[in-house]
Amino acid sequence: MHPVEVLSALGTGVWRWSIGGRITLDAAAARLLEMPEDVTEVSAAAARSRLHGLDYVQLSGIANLAMTEGTLAEAVVRIVDSDGAVLRWVRVRMSVSGEDGALAADGTVQEVVRPATGTPPSDRSLSREAFLLDAGRSLAEATSTDAVLRVAAALAMPGFTPAGQAVFGIENDRLRVIGHHGYWTGGVPFDELPLSTDSPACEVARTGEPVYLSSPDEFRRRFAPTWHMAEPQGMTSWAYLPLVKNGEVIGVWMPAFRTPTSFSPEERGVLGTIARMLAQALSRAYAHDLERALAADLQRTMMPGEIPDVPGLSLAARYVPTSKGLRIGGDWYDVIALPTGRVAIVIGDVQGHDVRASRVMSQLRIAIRAYASEGHEADGVLRRASRFLSRLNAGETEERFATCLYLDTEPATGTVYAARAGHLDPAVALADGTMLVHPTAGGLPLGILPDPDYEVTEHVVAPGETWLLCTDGLVENGGHDLYSGQARLQQAFRDTLGQNLEKVADALVDAVTGPESYRTPGPHTDRRDDDIALLLLRSDTPPGHARRTAVRRLRVIVPRTEQHRIADVRHQLRGMLYDWEPADQIDAAVLALSELVANAVTHTGGAAVVGAEVAGPPGRRTLRVTVEDSGQGLPHRRHPGELASSGRGVLLLDLLTGTWGVEPRGQGKAIWCEFREGDDD
């Protein structure tokens, strides 16, 4: 008896789908497809009209997968009438071949009993599609290799979830594990394998064809030399799928299962789709990782090397690129040893977050270093730097400007000569963690004008103080403004009292970029995060000294030509006394300070050196305010008339505080007054 007759006697039809799109049927196949039994050939469209729409899509996917893998395709589908009503269920088996994208198939069709249990095919399809959509979204959002591997490890596939996974990469004709989860719990048993190794992963890497191993016996039989690597893991089924990008195998994905898995066509289709998405995601992640590594190397080459040792000063610096884009930008810092024995400390920010901003930053940093080494004062360095940047902008379609803060320091005395070009003022953390801002005379950002003027402000780094120079990213990242950002940094200073500058620098960066920073967003959450550069300096003092004494000190120089800075001094004194009680004493101290400074700059013709110190335990502290000047004349009590415009300074001191005095200081004098916390007299 002919085989076709045997199959017909068993109720099984035979059919052939030619590359031209015509389908040849025998009588049994025609009957099962609800066509006249004398029909021997129909078009593909006619046959397709007899299949349920969802089932036809599923069958097409299975056929394509079978052709790719060189296996038989099998599926259960529904036969419908012209109204879409289901007439019967049939099992279709086929051997698929093809060329130039066209399919040809030889197969059988056999009626089966409608499944009484299990999920209907349409529901399975919807479940599978939902899973693939979610997996695709998660993989598309992964921007690094580690993130892709975490997503792959969390995949829960409908109906069969891997107990372990591994991803292999190919490099120089060798296979190595780039990530695994739930597999090789005792460690990967090899560093790398030559592609010639008799292992399923190496075979997939060589051939580009998937390997499915449904049982340990099949693994042992087909890949005996490497069975010892898989046996201890306790798995019963493995799938090895190629990761293909642009026709090239870039790796292998291996999901493993503890329960026996037959890898049905539907399951192979899901695994194959995941493998394709995983290959795309890994390819993007490789490119992104490489881009970030190149950007980091570029940024490192443009930043200064190790900070030099400066006798008398401790220094620490950090640079943190923005987490978005190319991760390069225009923020920089520098520490320059000058021929005079002084040290220049520089921090700045070039406009932009691109390669050009990084290039301009590098050129500007080198130019400032050269001008500083030539011996120019702080204002001269910034003036020349602005001229240099203006020349760089000439001929460019988009001009760039830069902010900069330049400190010319004398480490032995702690004296600082500061010039500022549109940058943030330096901040000072006192010995107990209180943070103040030292107002510094400033000018336009570099590059706005070719020959701008910059003033120089004199400061002093007192023992126990920590100075902070930073770019705006440290203050404003996370949607903060200057006020809320400063409060965040002040808390970080208080949390690191008595610690070395390296730990303080880490704490400041963590306060702005660490996990806890996202719990306290600022009022401007729509702002884009910026690069961060910061530099800390501290006058060397015995370890722990600042923490034991907990003394707050303030020292500011007010030149005669900058009397507007008296308001800045008042503001800083109020900052020092933020927790002083009662509040009336704060007003009295600020008024006394204002009177002393105004008298010094008005009557002596020189600068006033303002000092303030708060010492003692909370509730019993003493504030001592001192103003030094170069005048020789001593203050004395006067009796001004009602219309007199001066002469009330001593009377005012007597009213505000009963404790004040005068001391000789070099060529001049110092007038001081004291306030005791809680003293209402």
Automatic annotation (TrEMBL):
GO molecular function: ATP binding; kinase activity; metal ion binding; protein serine/threonine phosphatase activity
Family matches, as Gene3D superfamilies: 3.30.450.40, Histidine kinase-like ATPase, C-terminal domain, PAS domain, PPM-type phosphatase domain
Protein's UniProt keywords contain Lyase: no
Alphabetic keyword roster: ATP-binding, Hydrolase, Kinase, Magnesium, Manganese, Metal-binding, Nucleotide-binding, Phosphoprotein, Protein phosphatase, Transferase
Chain segments annotated as transmembrane: none
The keyword GTP-binding belongs to this UniProt entry's keyword annotation: no
PPM-type phosphatase domain mapped to chain residues: 310-539
Pfam short name (any one): GAF_2
EC number from the UniProt entry: 3.1.3.16
Coiled-coil region(s): none
SUPFAM superfamilies: ATPase domain of HSP90 chaperone/DNA topoisomerase II/histidine kinase (SSF55874), GAF domain-like (SSF55781), PP2C-like (SSF81606)
SMART domains: PP2C_SIG (SM00331)
Catalytic activity: O-phospho-L-seryl-[protein] + H2O = L-seryl-[protein] + phosphate
Function: Primarily acts as an independent SigF regulator that is sensitive to the osmosensory signal, mediating the cross talk of PknD with the SigF regulon. Possesses both phosphatase and kinase activities. The kinase domain functions as a classic anti-sigma factor-like kinase to phosphorylate the anti-anti-sigma factor domain at the canonical regulatory site, and the phosphatase domain antagonizes this activity.
Name under which the protein is recorded: protein-serine/threonine phosphatase
